Amino acid sequence: MSMFLDTAKIKVKAGNGGDGMVAFRREKYVPNGGPWGGDGGRGGNVVFVVDEGLRTLMDFRYNRHFKAQSGEKGMTKGMHGRGAEDLVVHVPQGTTVRDAETGKILTDLVHHGQEFIVAHGGRGGRGNIRFATPKNPAPEISENGEPGQERELQLELKILADVGLVGFPSVGKSTLLSVITSAKPKIGAYHFTTIVPNLGVVRTQSGDSFAVADLPGLIEGASQGVGLGTQFLRHIERTRVILHVIDMSASEGRDPYEDYLAINKELESYNLRLMERPQIIVANKMDIPDSQENLEDFKKKLAANYDEFEELPTIFPISGLTKQGLAPLLDATAELLDKTPEFLLYDESEMEEEAYYGFDEEEKPFEISRDDDATWVLSGEKLMKLFNMTNFDRDESVMKFARQLRGMGVDEALRARGAKDGDLVRIGKFEFEFVD
Q1: Cβ(69)–Cβ(121) under 8 Å?
Q2: What is the distance of C-alpha 2 from the center of its chain?
Q3: Which of 83, 253, 264, 323 has the highest count of CB atoms within 10 angstroms of its CB?
């Protein structure tokens, strides 16, 4: 079984804020001491941090739930609860994070040490010391902590490599990688010997170096899910230069030029922007008889499909087995990399905007529906936040919540919908009677 994992779905839950406290000063010689309950502490965030030592998402195969600690509750003497530490989760370079529900990209993590908060901790609830007023100098009101953000995430690893080797199975990609780098990929005389991407670093004679990824062999229909292509095409997206390896010996009985067209079609079908990457054609297995004739025929067909003013792709005849022609290929690749910029994988329209935690005036603060048992059901982000932060063990807090609902227009909206005196109203699991 392969130990390479490049996708994972996980759940993250930031810590809840600590509850505020109701307390009063009770010193012997301090009459009417007043409120003294402190605020709760902030809940911990869930933070992704890039670790260059990780190569796959295997750590997320068995551990799919990540929950940060909640903040401490407020204490007497006006002391605040301690805020919780953030939960740090290490991810490999090249990890793209999406919201599994909306499909929006949250962040693209590529630099070592890069951090991103994927779930924000809730703020601590206020203690009763915060609610003292001249009219009510000794309030028995406190808030519960704000719930931490909870979401399901889709992680996708797109390995970081400057150069990607693409081509049909058994064209010699793994052999090429093994002779130009120190990588030891599995090599065999059968299709799909390579079932996971392999990485290696090339050092040219001139002193240049770059990372090369040998990607599992593509076949026709790969972009639609045939073979292994759809699983690993994503790894080509981060490369800046593509080495298109072609078996010029035609030992598999295929036409080299048709192979070239078929692979480019799959790249284009998967992501049209892959065709923006410069390609170098690597004519491999030139040590086998008939390869030279096939190469000449390939060049003629290639030239026939280009206008006289278009620049033809560069072709390098090589033999991975005898190491013939490797030095010119590597030097040309390094030179092409020097003048090829990085390609932006995602534009701003694809990225989720920075989260806004305030209340949007255009957004409805609550919604009203009716259950099968004729109970009125109240919902909505702002309303549920107020509900979750209300301490229902204290009568004053309950009355404060009722005033907040009235101020939001809930009473009027229920009357307009036909609610009558004595009807049941439900918020979450909490039920109360409507009083007209």
Answers
A1: no
A2: 23
A3: 83
E strands present in 46-190: 46-50, 65-67, 87-91, 95-99, 105-109, 115-119, 150-157, 163-166
> Is the separation of the CB atoms in 290 and 249 below 8 Å?
yes
6 alpha carbon, distance to own chain's centre: 12
Residue 421: Cβ within 10 Å count: 8
- Measure Cα distances from 56 to 74, 152, 296 in Å: 42, 20, 42
Take residue 321 and report the two structure tokens written for it.
């087995």
- 247/224 Cα distance (integer angstroms): 24
| Cβ neighbour number for residue 128 with a 10 Å cutoff | 29
Q: Which two tokens stand for residue 46?
A: 């869930």
Q: Within 10 Å of residue 159's Cβ, how many Cβ atoms?
A: 25
- Going by C-alpha positions, the residue among 242, 264, 45, 48 that lies closest to residue 157 is 48
Instruction: Provide the H-helix boundaries in 305-380.
Output: 326-338
CB contact burial 323-358 (16+ within 10 A = b; e otherwise): eebbeebbeebbebbeeeeeeebeeeeeeeeeeeee
Check: CB of residue 212 under 8 Å from CB of residue 159: no
Placement of tokens 């086998």 in the chain: 288
Beta carbons of 329 and 281 less than 8 angstroms apart: no
- In 264-401, DSSP assigns E strands to 279-284, 314-317, 367-370, 376-379
